[in-house]
Amino acid sequence: MKKKKKEKKKVRLAMIWDEVKKKLVNSASFIQDSEVPFHVANLDDLHQKHIRWLRTLPRVKPFYAVKCNSTPAVIRMLSTLGTGFDCASKGEIELVLSLGVTPEKIIFAHTTKPQSHIKYASTRGVDMMTFDCEEELLKISACHTRAKLVLRIAVDDSKSAIKLSQKFGTKPSVVKKLLERCKELDLEVIGVSFHVGSGCTDSLAYRQAIEDARHVFDTVLLGFQMKLLDIGGGFPGNEGFQIQFDEFSKVINEALDEFFPADSGVQVIAEPGRYYVDSAFTLAVNVFAKKVVMDDVTRIRGVYNVSIDHTHTRHYPVVESGEKRYRSIIWGPTCDSLDRVTATYWMPEVQVGDWLLIDNMGAYTVCCSSDFNFFDKADIYPVLSAQTWNMFNLS
Ligand code: PLP
Predict the structure, then answer these.
(1) How many CA atoms lie within 13 A of 156 on its CB side?
(2) Which residue puts its alpha carbon closest to atom 8 of ligand 1?
(3) ipTM of the complex
(4) Which CATH class is domain 26-41+279-386?
(5) Under CATH, domain 43-276 is a member of which superfamily?
């Protein structure tokens, strides 16, 4: 009986991606029975991304940024593939450890941490953590004397969709004073990190940031064994990411060779989030209402409860090409008038009961969703091809 159940699960997980999409959207019974939005998470896509990462950035070990999408199937798959993990809180560390990841594969990459979270990291043997100010050092010295510290520096993030350096990272003028403070507190500093901002559009931002990190390594005359460079996140991950990713990688590899050559003994890691998960998730949302205004505005079930990330562009209903299109507004389901997904979108006429598919919904969506008004959050269906299943001997 148990075996039968397992077999059934295996078959469900092993369905091929395109078939899954087609099946879910065309299944009459599914459409009649449910209005709840759902994601299909294509775990093969994570595998493909990982292969590309290893091939393109061979010197950079990825520590997946859990904040971007903490779906357990995603963490398990990446753990199977061998990535490390960037956690930002006690909860993220708990999750990752509970899924079998070992503490040395985790970097606690939040520069401002509640004291209780630092204590938790200490008890669980998570030693690597970032900091960018003196107050953080005082907390760490009180709670985690074995910590291996990584100094986060502020870098130019002007070419990124989501800027981080106003809130995080220390300015060059403060670096020396902070490192002296580490010495006084007898804390170990092992390296430097930065983040060029999420949704970066300019490869040269990485080059400049790597050069900035080199300056920090060079000004450290305090006897620290600096051996880690963490180049953060910011890498593209949506459909068609390849060209931009290859361009970024070329610039990063050249900058690493120039400022941190392989024989420098410096280990290089990164904290990609969006890169791994963005294209792996497709969201299906049900149209539960429609309002025609002057014959050209369509109101549909939107996605407030699954939260759209800043960089989203594509929403489409499954329809034949060549149909007449109408200027439409896509609204979310809630009572909040800010709950608008797109202001203007040209789409074929949709009917109540139709389903819309939205690609590239893996990054900062599931994790930021809310159940405001008690609308259901989207279910998540992870799928994996039989080939990948067998390759990793999953069960
Ligand atoms: N690392 C840190 C410290 C971050 O704050 C973020 C995103 O905010 C990431 C990594 C992941 O960035 P991305 O999704 O752009 O790769």
Answers:
(1) 14
(2) 198
(3) 0.99
(4) mainly beta
(5) Alanine racemase (3.20.20.10)
